[in-house]
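Let's practice the habit of predicting before peeking. Look at the sequence and jot down your guess about where helices and strands might fall. Then scroll down.
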Amino acid sequence: MAEVKNLGLGALMSASLFSPFWHRVAAVKPRLRSHVEINRHIYRGDVWYVIQDDASGRYHRFTPQAYALIGLMDGQRDLDKIWHSAGDQLGDEMPSQDDVIQLLSQLYRVDLIQTDVIPDITEAISRQERDKRNKMLAMIKSPLAVKIPLFDPEPFLNQTAGLSRWLFNPVTGLIWLWCIGWALMQAGYHWDELTNNLADRVFATENLFLIWLVYPVVKLIHEFGHAYALKRWGGEVHEMGVMFLIFMPIPYVDASSSAAFRSKYPRMMVAAAGIIVEAFIASVAMAVWVYSEPGLVRSLAFNTLLIAGVSTILFNGNPLLRFDAYYVLADFLEIPNLASRGTRQVAYLCKKYLLGQEHEESPAYTTGEARWLFIYAIVSFVYRIFITISIVLFVASELFFIGILLALLSLYNMFGKPLFSIIKYLFMDRNMAQKRGRSALVTIVVLGMTGLLLFAVPVPRMTLAHGVFWAPESSRLMMGSNGFLKEIKVPSGSDVKAGQLLLVSLNEELESQLNKTSGRIRELLVHYRTAVADARQNEAGIIQEEIHQARAELQRALEEKRALDLNSPADGVFQLAMPVDPINRYIPRGTMIGYLLQPGEYRVRAVVGQDQVEAVRNDLQGISVKRSEDIDTTLEATLVGEVPSAQKELPSAALSVDGGGQFALDPASQDRPEAFDPVFLFDVQVNGLPVSRIGERVYVRFEHTPEPIGFRIYRKVRRTLLRELEF
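Done guessing? Here is the structure:
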């Protein structure tokens, strides 16, 4: 894909029709070079012309007014005749002589025309050296994405061009849609298995090696998708090579010839071909992963699925970065050079409305286009900051020194370079000579307002935490004996009285033991009476001891039998904590059956991460609670306690990421829910809350003293450096 640069006459017209320098160029006979081709395009309802430069692979867009001049450049007419002929065609829109000189200069700088004047060889060589130097500087400034061209794939693509018709047709499109739909359904069905312990699985050493092997192969197929899409609609591909993206070799093809397509839809298909191909690869990988046994093949399928899915969403499929989806969006909106013109649109607004430069011209040609340019520039800038910081932190966590260098270079490219350009414009541009006072005032006001907003204006500050309703130990109802649950006498959530029967269990083995012990006692009593009657005192004493032991066993068995029936120890509300259908389940002794809740004050156990615990401990101004089942109602609460030290065990699995909470689970702990990082537990008392299900998720807001946002950003950056880089 390629950027299409605009050429002259975009800001017609000059104040004077004639130029004092016209005599110097009037006799020049320009003509377009042989490697140049012109195509007519429609952008947002307006006619434009695109020059295709086959020699350099660059494309330039110009207006119909400029075309009226360029179309007459045949090497036979001099510039004066061309200007007068164009004036006859354009009428009131006739360009001035200065405009024609400017257009001629632009065409010459990009090497699109030649004249009957002997060329300046020294200047041409200097221009070539400057282009090479600019390419080298671009590689140095963008070390995360370095391109190295290798060969011309056009002969191979011509021999296999028939494949493009098989790849891009309605039938193939229907098959693709079916595959993607099936893969999405499988992803939803196997979501837990796919995402379980994802971080550890991905960053394991052997898995990173597999990713390093799989990634270039997936991207090679991706790039051939672009190439065959170009062949499908008549384009050519003359460059293929390797791009080092974050030091990983990735194949690429030059698909810039799609810019010559008149219709935007083939251009969009060429740009989207890589995304389409990767989505299909992901669906095939999903099928292999679903139907294969654990092992190398399944690991390769998982990594292929990860690469073709995640990388597409974050990079190629994201229009906020200048990859495939960006060109799809630009062609769909019919706004070429969306990113660069968006930046110029923001600069235009600042120059015109802040610095009072009335002569500035907007790069947008319509109001709608101006709106799109401004929105895209702001949103893409924010996203680029996010993704760049994420990449830098990832690299720095593995290669600290390189990560620091990348961080410095990224900061310079995103902030330092634009800042230097702004300073240079304010103090060195001749257009600002008469506006020095205003520019100084605007700079002071902007910096002052930024400083005030960041470091002087307090903004409400709070910590949002998840928690669960937490019942005290005294409210828990435990099973007193082993048995099978036969009947629940009281529905969960019902009011009960002290001594009321709650549930009934049965233990047939215990019944058999009772009968056996009772029979043995009766037998021992008979033997005891016989021994006493025969005056066998020693034997009678031994039998009497056995009777005492048997009666003790009978008493314990009777107590266990009574414990099979659970009675309410006091008045309250019975809340069952067993599975949905616990009937006929075996319930071991000590199993928690439910809770006996007393109306009134309840506690919430809130879980706070390490980054927020200091503010909760030392700067607490108020607490409010919202129940997940009644999010619109806010309940006042007070802090009543804190577990003294950090711990990893969570009060409930509902607070984990798997349960919809905030905290990732430690995969090493299988028996109980433990967070990956240590957490802190706080007990919050909620007044006047009706009895609710214990374990229900709640949202707790700890309010702190308002603070300017700049100090928060500083702390966030410092914590990130400490956590990610140990710096």
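How did you do? DSSP finds 22 helices and 24 strands in the chain.
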